[in-house]
Fold:
Amino acid sequence: MDSQRVDKLYTMLEKFQKKVDEQLATKLEFDKCRRLIQRLSSFSSDCEKCHQRFNDLENHILQLLDKKGRFTENDFKQHRQIMGKISSHLQKQHKLVTSGYYLSIYMSLGTSLGVVFGLLIFDNIGLGLPLGIGIGVAIGAGLDADAKRRGLTL
Ligand SMILES: [Zn+2]
Structure:
């Protein structure tokens, strides 16, 4: 991906963000948008689909800018759809995870294990549960931090 083109899209997005109010900015998820652009551009040289999605997103943002603030519900719907498609492609094809992904998995795993441990070892769910959750949180948070460090977080 041409880095100038990526920069241009970032600049465009920044200008766009300054023009809309906070409520709208939240709805349009600019931060997430920027992260997606970054990921797409880094994968686009090897992945045709990422290249395509980058084009889609670029066109879509241009279209939104063209509306000069007169958005309809349909625009937001389209926005969510495009962002959703990009997220799912990045997660499926490039093994990226959303932030807090491992924490949520290991916390529920820890909760179940805590119940089992509590019943089997302590004969008391109240003792096993916090232990299980504690271990789950520790593992999940560690994996999340690791994913982030390795640039695998969406
Ligand atoms: Zn891709």
Remarks:
- Residues 87 and 98 are 9 Å apart (CA to CA).
- The pocket of zinc ion is lined by residues 43, 47, 49-50, 89, 93-94 (CB under 6 Å).
- The chain has seven helices and no strands.
